[in-house]
């Protein structure tokens, strides 16, 4: 059996539901606390520039909660001066740099570290100098992994969306997408990067992704929040954790 696999739960879409009514309920902070109690190893939250779900006050409250619980906050952020300043002010355990476009429904692919090197590398340097663990959300591409290493990132998170979409659609390209994830994970580890994976993972796809030995953390959000409507959040997380543990063993959470 390979090393245990961590589960980060993204609570963005609890905030989406809250914001639909313009109220204070349901609370993303309460969801984070429940997720940790149910077996999540950490919490991911994406403060988008348009504040469509997570808000600044949520980050304030999540940072306080997770420090109290001794669990990590993975702060997803666009590579902007505003988000850099917020990250530096809050000092999360990790900052995951992601691409962001106002018109997209959700993140539509990995960050292009090669084209954006001049803009991204200085942000990586400043965040890392502040003691924040820097992760880059990238497609399963060897050149992107090499670029992440060259600019000083400690972690890459591989975008699993193409594989997960293909599985859901019964598309035979799924095997090829999985193969690319496996190859990129092996190369990233060879370069000395820690490897995470996320986007679109559900009960049908988590087993194959969990079996990639170099991956040490999965970040899962939308599916778990959606499934919690039917099962409840603790039960959805428990079921996901069980599927992960069947492949890799528990992390002790």
Description of the molecule:
With 253 residues, this protein is α/β, with parallel strands linked by helices. The chain has a single domain, classed as TIM Barrel. Helices cover 49% and strands 16% of the residues. It has an eight-stranded parallel barrel, surrounded by seven helices. Helix 2 (28-38) packs across helix 11 (233-248), helix 6 (142-150) runs parallel beside helix 8 and helix 10 crosses helix 11 (233-248). It is globular, with a radius of gyration of 17 Å. The chain starts with 5 loop residues before the first strand and ends in a 5-residue tail after the last helix.
Q: What Rg do the Cα atoms give?
A: 17 Å
N-end to C-end Cα span:
18 Å
Q: What proportion of the residues is helical, as a percent range?
A: 40-55%
Quaternary state reads: single chain
Strand order across the biggest sheet?
Answer: 1-2-3-4-5-6-7-8
Give the tags.
253 residues, alpha/beta, TIM Barrel, 11 helices, eight-stranded parallel beta barrel, 49% helix
Task: Summarize this entry quickly.
49% of the residues lie in helices and 16% in strands.
Write the layout of secondary structure elements.
Layout: E1 6-10, H1 12-21, H2 28-38, E2 42-46, H3 56-69, E3 73-77, H4 81-90, E4 94-97, H5 117-129, E5 133-138, H6 142-150, E6 155-159, H7 161-169, H8 174-190, E7 194-198, H9 206-210, E8 215-220, H10 222-231, H11 233-248
Parallel strand pairs: 1-2, 1-8, 2-3, 3-4, 4-5, 5-6, 6-7, 7-8
Helix pairs in contact: 2-3, 2-11, 6-8, 7-8, 10-11
């Amino acid at each position: 059996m390979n090393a245990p696999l961590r589960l980060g739960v993204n609570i963005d879409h609890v905030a989406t539901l809250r914001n639909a009514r313009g109220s204070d309920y349901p609370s993303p902070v309460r969801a984070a606390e429940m997720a940790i109690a149910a077996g999540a190893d950490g919490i991911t939250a994406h403060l988008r520039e348009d504040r469509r779900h997570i808000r600044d006050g949520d980050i304030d409250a999540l940072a306080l909660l997770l420090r109290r619980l001794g669990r990590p906050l993975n702060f997803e952020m666009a590579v902007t001066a505003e988000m850099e300043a917020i990250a530096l002010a809050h000092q999360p355990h990790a900052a995951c740099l992601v691409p962001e476009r106002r018109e997209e429904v959700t993140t539509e692919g990995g960050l292009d570290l090669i084209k954006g090197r001049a803009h991204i590398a200085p942000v990586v340097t400043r965040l890392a100098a502040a003691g924040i663990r820097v992760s880059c959300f990238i497609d399963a591409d060897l050149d992107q992994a090499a670029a992440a290493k060259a600019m000083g990132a400690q972690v890459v998170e591989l975008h699993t969306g193409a594989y997960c979409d293909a599985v859901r659609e019964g598309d035979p390209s799924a095997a090829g997408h999985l193969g690319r994830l496996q190859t990129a994970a092996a190369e990233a580890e060879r370069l000395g990067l820690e490897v995470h994976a996320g986007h679109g993972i559900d009960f049908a796809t988590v087993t194959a992704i969990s079996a990639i030995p170099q991956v040490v953390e999965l970040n899962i959000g939308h599916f778990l929040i959606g499934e919690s409507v039917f099962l409840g959040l603790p039960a959805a997380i428990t079921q996901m954790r069980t599927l992960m543990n069947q492949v890799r063993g528990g992390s002790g959470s």
